Amino acid sequence: MRQYPSDVAFTPAVKQIQQAKGSRASYAKVEQGRGWKTRITPDLTEFVAVLDMFYLGTANREGQPYIQYRGGPPGFLKVLDDETLGFADFGGNRQYITLGNLSENPRAFIFLMDYANSRRVKLWGTAKVIEDDAELLERFRDPDYHGKVERAIVFTVATWDVNCPQHIHKRFSQRYIAPVIAELQAKIAALEEQLRQVREATPAAWTDRA
């Protein structure tokens, strides 16, 4: 039985190293104060709703870890209730490593990244694969996204915490960059058209310069 939610990560071995390195006192204050959250809050719900990717960690029976990138339309990771997240398992390379791991070890980890705003969130919990719930699978479908929903993965949150933003290099997805590029291309086209009109209006002047 864990005394604090953060004990899922702060094992005795971790706390011993924290003590040796000088950070144990500050983390002890966090444990005894607000601590890590065990329920999905409105802030986390809002954060999840705009993400189009995250990283999912699982491990097999022997404890060998595996990290998988998960991508989809914005908001494809959905809040089902105040302790449960779910998402569509789209068709992929058919290795089924995550499915195999979860069949023998339900412990899982979700790492949420917002590169554009330098934000990251860590969630510990358990996950299970659901293939025979038509209503749930339909909830995860997006008619505007090409991915085929083959099954759902439901993640029950044990605890979560917000990571510090240090060392996060800003990166922007295509959906952020595309409108900016389109606007710049339109401005360039407009300027090129203006230049063409000026050249046609004063051909002699341009010929002399050449």
What is the element layout, followed by pairings?
Elements: H1 12-21, H2 24-32, H3 42-49, E1 53-59, E2 65-71, E3 78-81, E4 84-90, H4 97-104, E5 107-114, E6 119-130, H5 134-139, E7 149-163, H6 174-201, H7 203-209
Antiparallel strand pairs: 1-2, 1-5, 3-4, 4-7, 5-6, 6-7
Characterization of this structure:
The protein has seven helices and seven strands, in the order H-H-H-E-E-E-E-H-E-E-H-E-H-H. By secondary structure, the chain is an alpha+beta fold. The chain has three domains: 35 residues, no CATH class; 127 residues, Roll (Pnp Oxidase, Chain A); 36 residues. Strands 2-1-5-6-7-4-3 form a seven-stranded antiparallel beta sheet. A hairpin with a 5-residue loop joins strand 1 and strand 2. It is elongated. It starts with 11 loop residues before the first helix and ends with a helix. The relative contact order is 0.14. The model has no long low-confidence stretch (mean pLDDT 92).
**What is the structural class?**
alpha+beta
Under the CATH scheme, the architecture of the largest domain is Roll
Q: Could you give the order of the helices and strands?
A: HHHEEEEHEEHEHH
Main sheet? 7 strands, antiparallel
The level 1 CATH classification of the largest domain is Mainly Beta
Percent helix, as a range, is 25-40%
Distance between the termini: 83 Å
**Large-scale geometry:** elongated
